[in-house]
Structure prediction request, 520 residues.
Amino acid sequence: MLQSVSPEARRYLTSTEWSTLYGGKKPVNPNSASASFRRLPYDHCALSLQLFENPLCDTEGNVFDLLAIVPYLKKYKTNPVTGKPLESKQLLRLNFHKNAEGAYHCPVLFKQFTDKSHIVAIKSTGNVFSYEAVEQLNLKPKNWKELLTDETFTRQDIITLQDPSHLEKFNIANFHHVKNDQKIENEELIRAKTDPAARLKYINAETKGVLAELEKEYKAPEESVTVKVVADSINAAHYSTGAVAAGFTSTVMAPETKHEPAILDESIVRYQRIKKKGYVRLVTNVGPLNLELHCEMVPKTCENFINLCKKGYYNNTKFHRSIKHFMIQGGDPTGTGTGGESCWGGSFDDEFKPNLSHTGRGILSMANSGTNTNKSQFFITYRSCKHLDGKHSIFGRVVGGIETLSAMERIGTDNKDRPVEEIMIESAQIFTDPYAEVDEKLVIERAAALEEAERQLKEAKASIPKAQLKAFKQSGVGKYINPKAFINKPVESAGEESRFSQPKKAKTSSGYSFGSFSNW
Prediction:
């Protein structure tokens, strides 16, 4: 059993030993009667414990500040010092007078007030005097006229604000609002909770300038609400998210116990259902061009072209480059060959198919400035140019308007391959849009899947049989308990017991006996 070690062996004192045995400082409860006296100065508010600016007092001479006492009375309706009921109409407005140095003093004797001065106020006027002035000029000569206004008053109208011989009312530890921790949150406290800069009270001019500049430029990040997307029967992948395995094998991952299928990107779901080609007509000032788009083979490139045509992106744009026996290029709204963007903004990746080649006249392909830099510009070939295979994404061909393409090729160009006559795309007409048809089918499929899920849920709820308990004759407690189950069964007779008893085995001796060795 462990024994306590003596202080001599330890060579040090614990906090408990020092406070209880050797005269050290003992912890004192601030709300207890033995708490140390905490003096409140006469020019401080008894509620906010700060210098008052608009002083008010009650009939007992407790001084409060106007901005502190009014909200407190609205909430608690009690005296902050005594805890007695108090209303705002019971408060008296005090008129303190200051000398040339800005200190409070008696307006009659011109003596400056201190923490040892005897200070009184006249209830009828609210003027504050030293008790010496009132005693010498009012009480002794029995002159019951106020020293400044000559208004009549009585002895009961004299309110003692501070008496040096009775300072118990200035003990902060005895205040009712201090004992019960009653507080009113003013604007500064509320602002300090929300604005960290409100706590900075003493900062230099440079810091103030930096904070002011930061306040002008800083923008709080917008709170984005993330909604968890749940996989449905259409976009659910055949593999899981891997969250269960990651939560089981990694200590930094949140544990998961339910397998959830991964969610396929919406473009993958849509592109898998596209089985048709798209058809678009470009109306130019030379003539129409009917284009067939390979939507089932290069879905992303064709969707970009169809969406730009829908938005009118190509309307009133020029074919800015034409090279005879090679191709004609357009799709740049700036007409310089350096502009344009995809329907999603920026650029997108290439789509190459081995069965699509720049063979023959009228091949529709994407113009780019390098790998995966497709935007809005495209070109139409005048002749075969197989050297462009694997570099530019083919997404269609001209199926009507070959004579228009020939007319474009006959227009001359300058030394920068710009047509001398403007070749304009006036408008784009969409005949067949496979993407819009797939989107409509997906909406119908999702609605049908939702209805089917709701129907199955209702059937599952309806198929659950309700438990029906058999009620017996008795009522109240034990209504559903069969009383026959507790009837004592008769004890079996000794004869029956012997009939079913097992036969006793013959005892065998544990000693050694001689015999032959035939079993060897």
